[in-house]
Amino acid sequence: MITLRVLALLAAVALAVGPAHAQISDGVVKIGVLNDQSGAYADITGPGSVVAARMAVEDFGAAKKGMKVEIVFADHQNKPDVGSSIARQWYDTEKVDLIIDVPTSSIALAISQITRDKHKAFIVSGAAASDLTGKACSPNTIHWTYDTWALANGTGSAIVKTGGDTWFFLTADYAFGHALERDVEAVVLKSGGKVLGKVRHPFPTSDFSSFLLQAQASKAKIIGLANAGADTINAIKQGAEFGVVRGGQQFAGLLVFISDVHALSLDKAQGLILTESFYWDLNDATRAWSRRFAERHRQAMPTMVQAGVYSAILHYLKAVEALKSDDGPRVIAKMKELPTDDPLFGKGRVRADGRKIHPMYLFEVKKPAESKGPWDYYTMRATIPADSAFRPLDQGDCPLVKK
Amino acid sequence: MSVFGVPTQALFGQLLIGLINGAFYAVLSLGLAVIFGLLNIINFAHGAQYMMAAFVAYFLLQWAGLGYWWALLIAPLAVGALGVVLERTMLKRLYHLDHLYGLLLTFGVALVIQGVFRNAFGSSGLPYAIPAELTGGYNLGFMFLPTYRAWVVGFSLVVCLLTWYVIERTKLGSYLRAATENPALVQAFGVNVPRMITLTYGFGVGLAGLAGVLAAPIYQVNPLMGADLIIVVFAVVVIGGMGSIMGSIVTGFGLGVVEGFTKVFYPEASNTVIFVIMAVVLLIRPTGLFGRSQ
Q: On chain B, which terminus has fewer CB atoms closer than 10 Å, C or N?
């Protein structure tokens, strides 16, 4: 009897000591890169993001610091059910600590919720919907590279200022398209412009002839393309065929990446105004990194999404090192505490609502004659400083932000 | 004047666009209908073969400097020849088995081909310019019709009608139709049935290749172009009636128009309307609109 009581007491004491918080789960920091490896967004993120992730781990010097970091990746095929089940499997069975990238906003929103339920960490580089740091903000999620509000504020207001005051929207019929359309429409209306019509096309679509016809019939000065990747490329290409620009209308590429310009060729893409947070030819640091990236990725220059993956993982590993733990919400909180500084995005910080702040740049696509070599596509038109590039903290309806 | 809130002018434009898309569906489903109707092979590799022809056209331009008109001739022949090789080496062994084996084989081949191309070329696609003679367009008043698209409709119509004529109205076509009904008897008459079957498969694949070259200047030449289209084309063939040549032509154009109208009145459904129609048709007429029950 006494022995049993002693044993019980010993057990209680042992358990009362408590779990060791300062510990990396299973001794490995496991990072999962989840994106579209083969479909409409594969060249924007895809295998390139995995290359960027690996470069980040190597440049961080994880091995030298005695940290074990593992990268896994998977293809969500732009389908929310596939993405969600991969995320659950990663978190539950494969002990992944951080999921990163995730283009396609509907999937990002779903995974943000799953990550919150499972107390892990999630950094979005690919998806755009500004709701990720607005109504759907979460203490486990950071939105890194760009969002629909920043695009609307950059491209949208630049175009309205140059006289594009009547708009017709061609919108991808899912979360991202709706968010981008909503944010740009707000900017257009605030600047005194008018929206003459909108049409929602299935995602993805390869034939835009019917929708372009409707855009032409509206006689709007600007046809706003609230879509991305292959959809934007097809719309612009077919627009050239149907004489959209010749008829006096202009395309506004609300989300255009350097990979899209490459696929379109300068001939079709010239004159497009776009907003990005990274360009390979900005300065010596971006050039050096981009060349290293291109060598490992089919000689293709990095998109801002891929650069974002690199930058985010560097900062994440810094936070893990400082905390000596990979516990999801605590690392995210640490990432908000530490200011960011990397060769690609410069100095910045992560806000309380999970929004990373850095300057955005307004670019114009060069004419073929102006380009001096492969991938020399952009002329910088303006720099939008970090504090005015993103939606003000108090306008997002994020429950994490104290009013 | 307007119909359900859409001005009739705009509606005419959409009708024309629908016919143009229908032309693609018609040529592709014709190839499929020829292969299934006459050979009883469910050729799931059709989309991949369509895609390969577009790539052949791209390479002819890049490496040999041969333009669109050459590609229109060479690419279908090249892809048709590859089809003949596939038939001779693999499909021939499955004729005595259930249809499903042919389906599985061609589906597997399609996945392999698409995967290889995607690995090599990425998924954003490669540019292919509209040939100089076909650029520009006509201002019809209610819309601007690109010359190239008008060419696609006209050329497709001619090819479809020619094919139908050869199969349904000529002696060669009658041999082919007889050979599929009773190969042993026709062979006894001295007709080389296996060779006819091989060439017919090659012809069907060649039709897919023709559609691929027609598509290259409009859509991006990309490894996924066939995958997007093949499911819709199968639905078209099923609705038209699996064995009917005229059925697939008429249905192809017709469904293109239906899809075009859906894009005006309820664009979010434009991806699915063809499948809804397929479900309805199968419930009412299981053999398809023009199909014959076998």
A: N
